[in-house]
Amino acid sequence: MGEPLSSTTWVPVAEWLLCALLVLVLLALVTVIVRRFALERGGGAVECYLRSGTARRRAWRIGCARYGTEELRWYRIFSLWPRPTAELSRRGLVVMGRRAPTAEDLRELTADLVVIQVGRLSSSGADPERPEYELAMTEGALTGFLSWLESMPPGTIWQS
């Protein structure tokens, strides 16, 4: 059928494959950087960490949260996916608690962050029993989050 590849033949092939792999890695890196720039460019965005519920074993995920009129959209930082990973509707969202990061949290977070637990009011208006998400952010970002949560854009009519 053909002769086996000799070292003089496979070395150029390996070089081309290595170059192609390097180009793909650089392209992915540039795409992540451009995506992050685009997310933060329009304003109303803050860097924060997110994890689901009270599952202490789950890892914190770093991301960028964008404030919208009706919801907070959370995007993973190191992702190529253009859509948000989580969307927190402003309607019925309440802060259930606030705390400093625990020793276990400090493996993934820094000590200057504040951890808040957020949940959703039930249809009867009762407080939530368990948090839906935990968010970790700086004091300044927390102030912005609480202002966003408590404010209402002009002309918006909340329907209960």
From TrEMBL:
<dbReference type="InterPro" id="IPR019675">
    <property type="entry name" value="DUF2550"/>
</dbReference>
<feature type="transmembrane region" description="Helical">
    <location>
        <begin position="13"/>
        <end position="34"/>
    </location>
</feature>
<keyword id="KW-1133">Transmembrane helix</keyword>
<keyword id="KW-0472">Membrane</keyword>
<dbReference type="Pfam" id="PF10739">
    <property type="entry name" value="DUF2550"/>
</dbReference>
<protein>
    <submittedName>
        <fullName>DUF2550 domain-containing protein</fullName>
    </submittedName>
</protein>
<keyword id="KW-0812">Transmembrane</keyword>
